[in-house]
Structures are given as C-alpha cells and as structure tokens.
Amino acid sequence: MSTRTAPPHGAPCWLDLSTTDEAASRRFYTGLFGWQANEPAAEFGGYSTFERGGAPVAGMMPATGADATDAWGVYLASDDAAGTLDAAAGNGGTVVSSAMQVADLGTMGLVTDPDGALIGVWQPERHQGFLEYAVDGAPGWFELHTDRYDDVLGFYRTVFGWHTATEADTPQFRYTTMRDGDEQLAGVMDGSGTPDADKGWSIYFAADDVDATAARAVELGATIVRPAEDTPYGRLAVLDDPNDARFKLAGPNNG
Fold it and tell me: CB neighbours of 50 closer than 8 A, spacing ≥ 6?
C-alpha cells in the first residue's frame, strides 16, 4: 500500500469512467470493489465520484453522443495545467480541451500524445485526486502501450517532466517506467510489435486475490478478455465491464 498527501507533478493522480449506463456502472463497481458512490453533481454536468474507505478513488461521467462508448481515462498531475497544455501542443501533442477551472477543486484539460493516446491534465487545488493506491480495490498501476515508443517517451519527459528508467530494451520487449525517486508510478510499453495489444492508456486495479476478484466481476456481468495468469510482474487479468469498458487487475502471483 502507498499513500501520499499530494500527487507529484506528472504522476497519475485521477481516473474516471465515461459510461453510457451510469446506473449499471455504479452497481458494478460498488459491487466489485466495495466503493461508495456519490450522487451526480448537476453543476458539473452530472459528474459523480466513487469513494473507497471515505476517500475519493475515481470519477464517473455520462457518455453522450451517437458514437459514445464506455472507457476509463487517466489524468496526470500538473503544477500548471495551462502551461502543460501549451507544452503538449508544442511537442507533438494536440490540445483536445483547454484549461478549465473546476470550481475550487482544480484545473483540468485534455490532450493527446504524439500517438493519439488521450490523457487528462489535472492541476489539483482542493481535490488532490486519489491519495491511496496499490491496495486492494484501489488504482494499482497505469500503463501506456504505444506504436511510437521513442517519440512518446520524449513527449512525457518534456511535457510532464517525467523521470524515467529503462526496464527492458530488447527487440521483443521494450519497457520504461516513470519514477518518483525510487518509486515506479507508470509504465510505457512499445506495442509496435504486438498488433493485438490494448493501445493507449490502461488502468490496473489492485486485487489481493485476482482470481476471486475476476470471478466476482463475471458474476456482476463482466467479461473475461484475458484470464488471470502469473507473470514476472504479478498475477494479471484483463476484463471488460458490463458496458465494455476495459480494465485490468494486478495482484500477487499464486506461486
């Protein structure tokens, strides 16, 4: 388990679910992780939040439009959201949503990186994001699969001030982590040789028992995309929730 009082600049700090069926998503995630769901806030376009143990853990908003789909999104912390958006535009990214003050909670924006992966920018004020992670039922890991590995790494280093470490660099597997001191907070994988990989940002939720959590998810209407398996990085599983929003589970190996 890890806790913090505020997210470091550039670190994943928040996640939210865009959903076409808020009631179904609320039932699923409260049933799966034991989260508590707050009522939607009309002043924020129907945005609502989940809590874990009384602390904010994730958000949810209605997906609208003819092409609306369900998906989880990731936000990176910024000390200066407007400056980060300008830097993104000047380093191969695209600004999707300009910096916008959200009451006294903070300032947000949206950009895409040079490979088109969408990422939120959050400058915290009263709302610091999730402060507990890598514990059962909380965010556990954030990972980007990209076809433009070198370009994208340069983008996150420059725009978000990432300090990185190369974990693997072979033709079969290239992987870099974003670090805060010795702590790993996110990963980037070269997906150019794996056409079936989930391109873009993925969210892993921590689970003390990945198999039991995956089984419970299926009982609640989820679909197994990749069954739980032991790996050098822990026991991992990939699922789609009842509305096809993809998420992943990570926990201790069984061996």
Answer: 29, 30, 35, 36, 37, 38, 56, 57, 58, 59, 60
SS3 call for 166: strand
Q: For domain 133-251, is the CATH number 3.30.420.40?
A: no
From the centroid of its chain, how far is CA 188? 13
Sheet of strand 200-206: strand arrangement: 163-169, 174-180, 183-190, 139-146, 200-206, 246-251, 234-240, 223-231
The one-letter amino acid at 71: A
In this predicted structure, what is the pLDDT of residue 1? 62
Select the CATH number that applies to the domain covering 2-124 from these four: 2.60.40.10, 3.90.700.10, 3.10.180.10, 1.10.238.10: 3.10.180.10
The whole-number average pLDDT for the span 59-66 is: 91
What average pLDDT does this structure show over 220-239?
A: 97
What gap in Å lies between CA 83 and CA 98, rounded to an integer?
11
Q: What are phi and psi of 193, to 5 degrees?
A: -95, 5
Return d(Cα 229, Cα 82) in angstroms, integer.
42
